[in-house]
Amino acid sequence: MAEQYEELDLIEEITRNDGSKYFEISNIDQNGIAELAVDHDMIKNVRILQLNIPRTKALVTYEEYINQTYQLETLTNEDDWKNPQWVEWKKPKGKVADAYQMILKSNRIG
């Protein structure tokens, strides 16, 4: 569980090392961790597709799931940016996956 609640406000495209891609709803801090993961060859590429996405009910649902499920690294913690860990967030079937798909659809991504 995250020590500090993080609001999500952007959509990025992640390229795995095998060349496959996926979208993630994130924020600038997590995007920075993704950039560090690229530098450490944990993923191949990351690029921001959409900034300042609307705070919809779907976004809040997904955001709460992420904050409750994952220990989010932060650029304000020196250990996190010196030794980043890359975790691809799961999207379990049901309300989380539905919220994720709605966020992408409403932002015309995917």
Short description:
This protein has 110 residues and is an alpha+beta fold.
Architecture overview:
This protein has a 3-stranded antiparallel sheet, sandwiched between helices. It has 4 helices and 3 strands. With 110 residues, it is α+β, with helices and mostly antiparallel strands.
Task: Please specify the SSE layout and strand pairing.
Layout: E1 10-15, E2 21-26, H1 28-39, E3 45-51, H2 57-69, H3 78-82, H4 95-106
Antiparallel strand pairs: 1-2, 1-3
Strand content: 15-25%
Profile the largest sheet: 3 strands, antiparallel
- Assembly of the depicted chains: single chain
SSE order: EEHEHHH
User: Cα distance, first to last residue?
Assistant: 29 Å
Helix content: 25-40%
Largest beta sheet: strand ordering: 2-1-3
Question: What structural keywords apply?
Answer:
110 residues; alpha+beta; 3-stranded antiparallel beta sheet; 4 helices; 3 strands; globular
